[in-house]
Structures are given as structure tokens and as C-alpha cells.
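Intended use. Records like the one below are meant for learning the mapping from a protein sequence to its folded structure. Do not use them to infer anything beyond what is encoded.
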Amino acid sequence: MDVLSRIEEMLLLAIWKLEHNAYGISIREQVERDTGVKWMSGAIYAPLNRLKKSGYVKTFQAEGSAEKGGRPRVYYRLTSLGKDKLVTLQEVSQSIWLGVPDLKKEFKS
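Structure written out for the chain above:
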């Protein structure tokens, strides 16, 4: 099984949640909302590139705009392989946690 890092998993989920609005800044902001942790601007690009290289995401460029100085924005989309990976990740996560009691209650003792 191809095991992803936790950040790669979070990035795939963020791209899925953002649908057609998944670009660098929006992805980072989604991960920040989901985790409550601030991320440095460039921290997501290496794992995004690994996901692209593995075939889980694809990119495309939108036309440049005057507000960004004409630079095109790069958008990310899940591939079929990426969607399948998310299903597998969810199944594995549920399996790992199966049978574990509510740890908040367990550790209060």
C-alpha cells in the first residue's frame, strides 16, 4: 500500500473540499481551518508536487489577471486515482480507530 504523509492526506482532503477553487493559498487556508495550525506559505508546495508526481492530483493554469500582476493561478484537481486514494485513506483510518474507546473519557481517570 502506498502510504501518504499526514500533510499529503490533509491536502487531498482540502482539494476535495474546495472543489473548483483549489489553488495554493485557498488550499493552505483550508488546511489551517481544518487543523487550527498556521502554515507557512510555501509549506504545502513540496507535498502538492509529490501528490502530482504520484498521479493523485493534476494541475491547470487559469488565465492571468491584472490584480495578480498577470501571473496565472495554478489550480489543483483530484484525479480518479486521487479520489480512490481518499476512499482508501478513510477506510484505513476507520479501521485503525475501530474499537478504541472515547479517549477523552479514558484519559480523564
